[in-house]
């Protein structure tokens, strides 16, 4: 059963006194990839500005915009309509010797290396050897996601935006970002190229009329074993109709929906986080009768950082910044029997490497 999902993502930031300039990037346009087709996408910024759109190194659509008029509030509203497909059948994959070949190692070098957020650990190295000895590459990748799911406990507030995979594993808990980072660390120790995926997840596989539920941004992983295979270590749900991909990259910080490039300084109150409220319309085409499900939350914890702030700290000198934020995401999903179930997957050709 495929879905048609309408997404409304609103992020707001307020200042106590006028700010004279800010430089920003938004990655809020779902790409059209295997298993996901974007029918419509718009971005509106207040104060009014015309964003410059380009495609970055990882294949993600980026809207860059500067504001050079005094303002006390910044609002970014992204809307999109996306058709998704059923989960793709897991491929047979390739052998370990093929993965170790120079062609694969050169093509995916960046997705095999550790980083400050996806760290190498002796314990994971040993576990990786065990998975390689007992499994095919595809089996090892899926078992890595299962291991993370069993090892970590989902707990909001236990970690923060800059928590590394080693810190999350030591704590034994975290949110979807941490589950993804720990899984990436293990996948790379196994020898599987792997990337962090940010997007949205509709929380109910079978939405009932009038049922209240939570909707929010989400993170999962993809690993390469002859083709891209998606895995959701937080829930172990199949990545398919309920998932909408925004960006796929090495780690979470480069997959943030919004950020201010070039700023190494962080002022008090300069970070705000994504909250969401969702509404889902379920359509059964066999009867043609729409069923409406509402989901609502105001979640100021995190799964993904939204950073909208002046590029240079001096622009805030003498100004007090309210630590007040408003961020909303609304998702409307429609699923129809049999439509769009041609076995495609969002993971197949994204990004170009």
Task: For this entry, give a set of tags.
Immunoglobulin-like; 4-stranded antiparallel β-sheet; C8orf32 fold; alpha+beta; 6 helices; 353 residues; 18 strands
Notes on the protein architecture:
- 17% of the residues lie in helices and 35% in strands.
- It folds into 2 domains: 2-85 and 258-336, Sandwich (Immunoglobulin-like), CATH 2.60.40; 96-254, Roll (C8orf32 fold).
- It has 6 helices and 18 strands.
- A hairpin with a 5-residue loop joins strand 4 (52-55) and strand 5 (61-67).
- 42% of the residues are buried.
- The strands form 6 sheets. Strands 3-6-1-18 form a 4-stranded antiparallel β-sheet, with no helix packed on it.
- The model is unreliable at 261-327 and 335-353 (pLDDT under 50).
- The protein is globular and about 60 Å long.
- Helix 4 (137-151) runs antiparallel to helix 6 and helix 5 (165-171) crosses helix 6 (176-190).
